[in-house]
Amino acid sequence: MIKSMTGYGVGSHENAKVKYTVEIKSLNSKFLELGIRLPKAVSDKELTLRGECSKLIERGKVNVLISSEYADQTAKASSINRELLKKYYNQLKDIAAQLGEDQTGLFNLALSMPEVIANNEDEVDEEEGKVLLNAFYQAVESFTGFRMDEGKVLKNDLEKRVELILDYLGQVEAVEGDRIPLIRERLSQYMDEAVGKENIDKNRFEQEIIFYIDKLDITEEKVRLRSHCNYFLEALNAADSNGKKLGFISQEMGREINTLGSKANNANIQQIVVRMKEELEKIKEQLLNVL
């Protein structure tokens, strides 16, 4: 079953102390382009999260947004080292007095000195890290479900368009019966007008006709195109289906359709080939969204 590269999922988990919410969004991309925004308190989990995203999300332009909410809103508030602040302030006052400088603003200066204000977000216990990861895995599960639902829509559309190409191939086979006789008649008429019927070497003419018609034969192209279409449908329904593989098959389909058009030498077949190409372009556009 294919999955869409576009996805959205939210997960949250909490304990008595903190609640983490994780939101995952993705758009299509050839590779994994990952952006993670998380609280400073759990910044040490970023490498772990990146590794899990690479494994579970695979490809896409992915944004992961993580937020936290504490039961005790003061639990993560910054604290002031009172003794250190007093020490800085008194030292600054002494130096200012010795130099005869203005002492205005010394308190704010002391407040900005190193380690006066301690940010408690830097201290996270192991239990809080587990809460974050549980929220992340919930978000991934929701995100994957979204991708699978979108993948079903894509699958139905792709199947419909490949079936249309096969229908068009049937139309080509229905009209190509008159193709060779018309080519033979046209060439014969041209030779009669160019050199005269009595001057034509019938044996040589037949040899040239056979050679020319052989060059315009589309049997192999029809067989290969039908084979590629059936293989595409098989791959689409396979357990390990993926967008890159389907993209390669669609390229092969395109080659056969182009050759059909160039060898057709028939207005009706060329019109059908144009419709095939239209469907193939829509298939290629949809495959950009397939994981």
Automatic annotation (TrEMBL):
Requisite cofactors: a divalent metal cation
Keyword entries, A-Z: Endonuclease, Hydrolase, Nuclease
Keyword Zinc: no
Cited InterPro entries: YicC-like_C, YicC-like_N, YicC/YloC-like
Occurrences of domain Endoribonuclease YicC-like C-terminal (ranges): 178-290
Domain Endoribonuclease YicC-like N-terminal: 2-155
GO molecular function, one term: hydrolase activity
Keyword flag Hydrolase: yes
EC number from the UniProt entry: 3.1.-.-
Family matches, as PANTHER family: UPF0701 PROTEIN YICC
Protein family (similarity comment): Belongs to the YicC/YloC family.
Name of protein: YicC/YloC family endoribonuclease
